[in-house]
Amino acid sequence: MARRKKIYEGKAKILYEGPEPGTIVQYFKDDATAFNAQKKEVIDGKGVLNNRLSEFFMTGLAQIGVPTHFIKRLNMREQLVRQVEIVPLEVIVRNYAAGTMSQRLGIEEGTQLPRPIVEYCYKDDALGDPLVTEEHIAAFGWASQQDMDDILSLALRVNDFLSGVMMAVGIRLVDFKIEVGRVYDGDFMRLIVADEISPDSCRLWDIETGQKLDKDVFRRDLGNLTDAYTEVARRLGVMPKTS
Ligand code: C5P
Predict the structure, then answer these.
(1) What is the mean pLDDT of the chain?
(2) Ligand 1, residues 121, 201, 220: which to mutate, most atoms within 8 A of Cβ?
(3) Class of the 85-224 domain?
(4) Mutate to test the pocket of ligand 1, among 92, 111, 222, 225 (most ligand atoms within 8 A of CB)
(5) Domain 6-82 carries which CATH code?
């Protein structure tokens, strides 16, 4: 078989040219990184779990009318997705204080926020993805005002969906990050959810015990990351099959 053309290799995923124009194969690696790749480890099985979990979340979003890049899962580690023009923003939604928000504002981790708070970071590894305001986004032309309205609406719909799905299995959605991309259907441009949604990009705490079931297990050396992600998959009924 001909070698596929690698388009991009990131910290946790590799993108290959897809079989049809406008498609991409997204490969999930086992690599875990934190603190802008200052901490790195290979974690057996993480890629398989994230491939399956991202499929589950993206499929659920599509069912409630939230457009995503997901087309289909190809195998244990790969999924076929639509090629998008990625908006250079990390869109973070927070329901409870944690992580950098707690550090920045001195709010104790786990404090419920008065309402979901959406933050934007400029996607730039060399700069460590700095927090930016809508002023920066507009002034530097990273997204238009219409894009920002659409991004906010997508982010809040993803939050409602994910919060509900996780709550149903006894997990609190503390916060998460999404990325969005532009797709062009003829002259018409629209924004869709891209990248991945997985315990790598969410904070998930057991509602009863507060146990962390997300990448903080790795960031903070709290135990076995695969066990945590497997628990999320088990509760959601999406344990990876062997095909
Ligand atoms: O680190 P911070 O508290 O800002 O992260 C907020 C949320 O966004 C967390 O769920 C984290 O996993 C996610 N995130 C991410 N990728 C980044 C930064 C944050 O998935 N580069």
Answers:
(1) 96
(2) 201
(3) alpha beta
(4) 92
(5) 3.30.200.20
